[in-house]
Protein: Argininosuccinate lyase
Organism: Oryctes borbonicus
Amino acid sequence: MATQKLWGGRFTNSTDHLLEKLNSSIHLDKRLYNEDIEGSKAYSRILVSSKLLSQEESDLICERLDKIKAEWMKNEFVIKDGDEDIHTANERRLKELIGDVAAKLHVGRSRNDQVITDTRLWLRNAIGILEQLLKQLIKTIVDRSFEEINIIMPGYTHLQRAQPVRWAHFLLSHAWNFKSDCDKLQHMYKTTNVMPLGSGALAGNPFYIDRIKLAQDLGFEAITQNSMQAVGDRDFIAEFLFWSSLTGIHLSRLAEDLIIFSSKEFNFVEISDSFSTGSSLMPQKRNADSLELIRGIAGSLFGQCSTLMMTLKGLPSTYNKDLQNDKDVMFSCFDKLTATLNIASGTVKTLKVNPINCKNALNFDMLATDLAYYLVHKGVPFRLAHHDAGKVVAEAEKRNILISELPLEVLQSISKHFKEDITEIWNYENSIEQYQTMGGTSRSNVMTQIDLLKKWLFACTISNKRA
């Protein structure tokens, strides 16, 4: 016997089987079973306040909904033909357990406000999971930065050796990107944690339910103020997908740097066996597939953001069935990000850095900027000092030697301000330590960065415990 559809009363013919299949979303939105059940339990309690359910009926509904939840958790819930979505499936099962009392639960409620409530509840929890994974990655970077603060390496612009920096300074540059992602998540939590339940299909709820009390019961910080906007709003999902795209890009840039640095041409780092793969043909190969997968997944995250944005751009107001596709991209982005964040943390934690190779990649030509700074300290305007330093580089290239090997008399032929103390600049540690301005690569500044991030992580931990 076919299950009676929630909306089937005005139809005389059965739904085409192809549309039936396309219309069904239970294979996706069954992930919302917990949120759907908790929302229904809260709604049943508020219906008691409106005298639409007795306390005994509400208690029975909540008790049986907990049983249904346990069935989902144990993978014992049986999806049947006609279970279009998670709401239909849960309501059908509830009716099997308690009969017609189950039919009272939906009064004043539409699947339009039900699904968006479930989605906000689910994403609210997902945001907390992603935040913890990001903090785990940041902590891994901070710990390595502290332990390896004395390692010096070339810094790059345009993928060309530019200036000496600390390895820790490089690592922390990525940590600050991820902290920014965390900050955006915290803002996103607020915009997500707004309750639409009580909006009905689009016009509102006529039964005088206390939406503020209902929101408090479900842990929402606020309620929506316009029922039409509430049921059609997917901005918070679009915001999440954009955030996922941006975070994916940050992960991809870290991955790309480490892929380059792990190549034999650089050999600054070695990716552990646990996060590498080999070649089926070339036995010597160690492929950084963990990082390459992160880099590749970043593109698909952006693609899923674009998918929803294109869905939203042409929609008329309130709910349209196009919006059924919002959960597909949302779930997919969450799954991909949880995987890549875990892989990124593991890869960074277990990689081996090669301090000697980092140091050997330095050369005195990278101190050409220091030549200009030397002249500035002698009173030469920077633009002229930069020009004279460029002449020094050109002269060294013409002689096929390093700039540090040019005789003093040659340097003085370029600028009379070069003196015997010029030899003091040919020191990488001194070069790094001159960057004492906040944000620079000197040891004190790198330690400041580490301390700031440690305090931030600690404050977040305390906040989570209080919550």
Q: What stands out?
A: The first helix runs from residue 17 to 23. The beta strands are 152-157, 160-166, 194-195, 222-223, 269-270, 352-353. The domain at 364-433 is CATH 1.10.40.30 (Ribonucleotide Reductase Protein R1; domain 1).
